[in-house]
Predict the structure.
Amino acid sequence: MKAIPVFGRRVTQMREKRGFSQQELATKAGTSYQTIWRIENGKHAEPGIYIARGIARALGVTMDYLCGVNDDDSEVFPAAVALAGH
């Protein structure tokens, strides 16, 4: 069984921390439920920059954090912005 890449693991962790379903995250990130499912299950290991940016913004973290460049998951946007998906 193939290991899930850092990006997928961190998306799942932050989505659950925020209390979002996969569908809610997809809507907030401007992508499809299938894309979120595939990322979280290691089927889409390297999403495009626009998808990654949308997910990071929706979760209120940096792309560096999601990609594993750093381990600082502190919010870069106020929680209200992350919850609103802007």
Notes: The CA atoms of residues 9 and 20 lie 15 Å apart.
